[in-house]
Design brief:
- One of its GO terms (molecular function) is ubiquitin conjugating enzyme activity.
- This is E2 ubiquitin-conjugating enzyme.
- Belongs to the ubiquitin-conjugating enzyme family.
- The protein has about 190 residues and is α+β, with helices and mostly antiparallel strands.
- The chain folds into two domains: about 5-150, Roll (Ubiquitin Conjugating Enzyme); about 155-190.
- It contains eight helices and four strands, in the order H-H-E-E-E-E-H-H-H-H-H-H.
- The chain has helices at about 5-15, 20, 100-115, 125-130, 135-150, 155-165, 170-180, 185-190; strands spanning about 25, 35-40, 50-55, 70.
Length: about 190
């Protein structure tokens, strides 16, 4: 059974220092078993300036079992699947400890963005590119960051207007768009369940 009191405490801890860490964890719905994590791209990397969303699913055995995490934002990285967002990181598998938290897991993912491990890849194509031609890898990673991990406020406002014209309240449209990183199609899916 998930220790929801601990999850609530972890969410409070994340919200206390969001200004300094940039790391955020929010519930996707009323259930604390499905969360969305947000991490900033590390400075000095091709991911700098991006905001990356990570879907978090807590298994029944949490905190004794690791959370299931995968990138919702597309990212070009040897240890992250460019197709599914699956993450190759030991603490999300066999090196998990109940002493770790959602925030420490997200910090570890952020560190992985800074220090790829191409010898233990999740995405072999990206790993080969990283090893054979780093400049092309870095350019592609920067392009993906610009395309998928950055949202302009102007773009968001235009999308809010489109959704409002479809009959959704502006505040709801804005918060939904922000929750899905500005992805209009995902926002529509969330606004139109079923």
């Amino acid at each position: 059974m998930i220790d929801f009191a601990r999850v609530q405490k972890e969410l409070q801890e994340c919200s206390r220092d969001i200004e300094s860490s940039g790391i955020r964890v929010d519930p996707k719905s009323d259930s604390l078993a499905c969360l969305t994590g947000t991490i900033p791209g590390p400075i000095g990397t091709p991911y700098e300036g991006g905001t990356f969303r990570i879907d978090i699913s807590l298994p029944d055995g949490y905190p004794f079992e690791p959370p299931k995490m995968q990138f919702a934002t597309k990212v070009w990285h040897p240890n992250i699947s460019s197709q599914s967002g699956a993450i190759c990181l030991d603490i999300l598998r066999d090196q998990w400890s109940p002493a770790l938290t959602l925030k420490t897991a997200l910090l570890s993912i952020q560190a992985l963005l800074s220090s790829p491990q191409p010898d233990d890849p999740q995405d072999a194509v990206v790993a080969q590119q990283y090893l054979r031609d780093y400049q092309i890898f870095a350019g592609t990673a920067r392009y993906w960051t610009e395309t998928f991990a950055k949202t302009s406020l102007l773009g968001i406002e235009e999308k809010v207007q489109k959704l409002a014209e479809m009959g959704f309240p502006q505040a709801l449209a804005r918060s939904t768009l922000e929750a899905v990183g500005g992805d209009e199609n995902l926002a529509l899916e969330k606004l139109c369940p079923g």
